[in-house]
Design brief:
Layout (H helix, E strand, L loop, with lengths): L2 H12 L10 H14 L1 H25 L3 E7 L5 E6 L5 H8 L3 H15 L3 H15 L6 H20 L2 H28 L5 H9 L4 H23 L4
Antiparallel strand pairs: 1-2
Helix pairs in contact: 2-3, 2-8, 3-4, 3-5, 4-9, 5-8, 5-10, 6-7, 6-8, 8-10, 9-10
Length: 235
């Protein structure tokens, strides 16, 4: 395969696909997402994606606000930690710390919109690029393997997946990230999750941790409403 042919195929895979015909694929994708979140064996493996998006949310917002992203770690227990360097206090530190929990819900809602409008291939390519670039910032072998595995899955679906399979799995991925964001937040509310973000935000501001947890819930609810309003005509 010459470079011209390869380039042509890449461009073709970035163009929007026709949305699959019929209404079956939307509930099928959402049921798949729900099953992955509810069934413990599936959740134990798949929640890694929620953690990766959570940590990249910290990083991207930090970079946008002038902080320097130095790396992130995803632990074997699926918790994570991202490090940005900059002023120890101030708006940039607060915003980058806050961004973690809403990030999976926002990405999930965007994926729902994208899948319903035929842009799933372009979204998968964008995700692949972000994941490959983030490899530079992994700080453990487990994190490297987790990001590589996620990138390999996104890349394989982008290159070899049929339009129907790509649309179904992109919509399922969006639904999974939305539901997974709520499950992670529920763990924090019950006191059994990674409550370090609300605690850090309480230390960085005059507001108590529960106010920050409530702000996460409001952000997740807004993302859920946005995704739900797009899904409603297909119900």
């Amino acid at each position: 395969m010459d470079l011209r042919t390869l380039g042509h195929q890449i461009v073709e895979r970035l163009l929007p696909d026709a949305v699959p015909a019929g209404a079956w694929w939307v509930p099928a994708a959402l049921l798949l997402a729900l099953a992955v979140v509810v069934l413990p064996p599936a959740w134990r493996l798949a929640r890694l994606a929620v953690t990766i998006v959570h940590e990249l949310g910290h990083a991207i917002v930090g970079i946008l606000l002038g902080r320097r992203f130095t790396g992130f770690v995803v632990s074997a227990n699926m918790s994570g930690h991202a490090v940005t360097v900059g002023p120890r206090r101030g708006f940039g530190r607060v915003a980058s710390t806050w961004a973690g929990y809403p990030a999976p819900a926002l990405v999930g809602a965007v994926l729902v919109q994208i899948a319903l409008h035929g842009w799933a291939p372009a979204a998968l390519f964008a995700a692949l690029v972000v994941l490959v670039l983030s490899l530079v910032f992994t700080r453990s072998l487990h994190t490297l393997g987790a990001v590589l595995g996620t990138a390999a899955g996104a890349g394989a679906l982008w290159w070899w997946g049929s339009p129907v399979l790509t649309a179904v799995l992109t919509l399922a991925g969006g639904g999974f990230l939305l539901l997974g964001a709520w499950r992670h937040l529920g763990a924090v509310i019950r006191g059994g999750g990674r409550a370090d973000d609300p605690a850090q935000l309480a230390a960085l501001s005059p507001l108590p941790g529960w106010v920050w947890t409530l702000s996460f819930a409001v952000a997740l609810a807004a993302c859920t409403w946005w995704a739900g309003s797009a899904l409603a005509p297909h119900a």
